[in-house]
Write a structure and sequence with these properties.
Helix content is about 35%, strand content about 20%. The chain is an alpha/beta fold. A hairpin with a 2-residue loop joins strand 8 and strand 9. The longest helix has 24 residues. It is globular, with a radius of gyration of 20 Å. The two termini are about 30 Å apart.
């Protein structure tokens, strides 16, 4: 069974092609800021990315007849159970109608998958989308009754590396307590208790600042800035989730590039260290959520390739006395392919999006 996996990210579109769960190839279509930033919303990027995907498949000599199933990254739908969902008309309508919890590039993953799947006359899927919600009720409460904390996280990779970590510590996934920091363009620091993600920051709203996102901000200063007249609502949203974080401070979101800058630039070093500081601080907070009953701490995502950042984080969290596992990058494409294989093989039931 030939499975095509599509994972749209903030600055790239990752493509994986698998024979069952055996990788045939994994590749990345990269998008620079000039290509991406003139689009106001992720929906506006659908044709742009779809055309690039189709051109890419031609360069790989893959025809529609060579595809048996397509899976895209899941977006910020209403709260969903963990699992694999077939893309249906209700899902597509919710995306186009904006019936979503927030704006995120993963929202168009299902549409990109269905566009290719329809031409190949096969089914399309999503799995463990950003909106997987396993929070305990106490984790949802904020200081304003009108506002609640939401589970909008990097669930796909967090679940996948969680299973890898459970094997590494010789425990069943459903019996393992982990703190998992997914560190990419957005950063999720999650407490996983007995295989369930019971708490995490939502990268678009809170937590450490990221390469592009602002993280938790001083509330009174933010309110004043919003009402200052300097920015429209749309401009503030873009600043918060596309042009914040490292990009706002240093005009680049490339962590490798910033690490080189930090060797000679004191300001760049301070900003990079501050991001690592905030990641470490949130790992400490999740240690409290798990009441110190932690089997391992996992660092994953693209930033986990960066030895400088990993070293800085380890310096701050080693006192917890727990194993620190580093799984650089993300195996989201493989995780997506495995989910389709498991459904097609009857290992798990496909879920219906309603």
């Amino acid at each position: 069974m030939k499975i095509l996996a599509i994972n749209p990210g903030a600055t790239s579109t990752k493509i994986g092609y698998f024979n069952d769960t055996d990788e045939i190839f994994v590749d990345v279509i990269r998008h620079n800021h000039e290509e991406i930033h003139h689009f106001d919303t992720p929906i506006d990027q659908i044709d742009f990315r779809n055309n690039l995907i189709e051109k890419f498949l031609k360069t790989k000599n893959i025809s529609y007849n060579d595809i048996d199933a397509v899976i895209g990254r899941g977006g910020l739908f209403h709260s969903l159970e963990s699992g694999t969902y077939e893309v249906n008309e209700k899902m597509i309508k919710d995306i186009y109608d904006g019936n979503l919890q927030d704006e995120h590039i993963s929202n168009i993953g299902a549409i990109l998958a269905k566009n290719i799947a329809d031409k190949a006359n096969v089914k399309s899927y999503i799995t463990d989308p950003v909106c997987v919600d396993e929070f305990e009720d106490i984790a949802r409460i904020t200081g304003l009754p009108e506002l609640t904390r939401k589970s909008l996280i990097h669930a796909l990779n967090i679940k996948y590396v969680g299973r890898k970590a459970a094997k590494a510590v010789n425990k069943k996934y459903e019996e393992t307590n982990l703190i998992i920091a997914h560190m990419g363009t957005g950063i999720s620091v999650a407490a996983q208790k007995k295989g369930r993600i019971v708490d995490s920051n939502s990268p678009n709203e809170e937590g450490p600042f990221c390469p592009q996102r602002v993280g938790t901000l001083p509330v009174s200063q933010l309110i004043k800035l919003c009402y200052s007249g300097k920015y429209t609502k749309r401009e503030m949203i873009v600043r918060a989730i596309k042009k914040g974080g490292l990009y706002a401070h240093l005009q680049t979101d490339n962590v490798k590039e910033i690490t080189e800058m930090a060797k000679i630039d004191e300001h760049a070093r301070l900003i990079l260290n501050a991001m690592c500081y905030q990641i470490s601080r949130h790992i400490g907070a999740q240690a409290a959520v798990l009441r110190g009953e932690i089997d391992a701490i996992v660092l994953t995502g693209g930033i986990a390739y960066n030895e400088y950042c990993v070293g800085k984080i380890k310096e701050m969290i080693e006192f917890l006395g727990k194993p620190i596992l580093v799984y650089p990058g993300e195996d989201e494409l493989l995780a997506m392919a495995e989910s389709v294989y498991n459904v097609k093989s009857g290992i798990y039931d496909v879920k219906v999006y309603e």
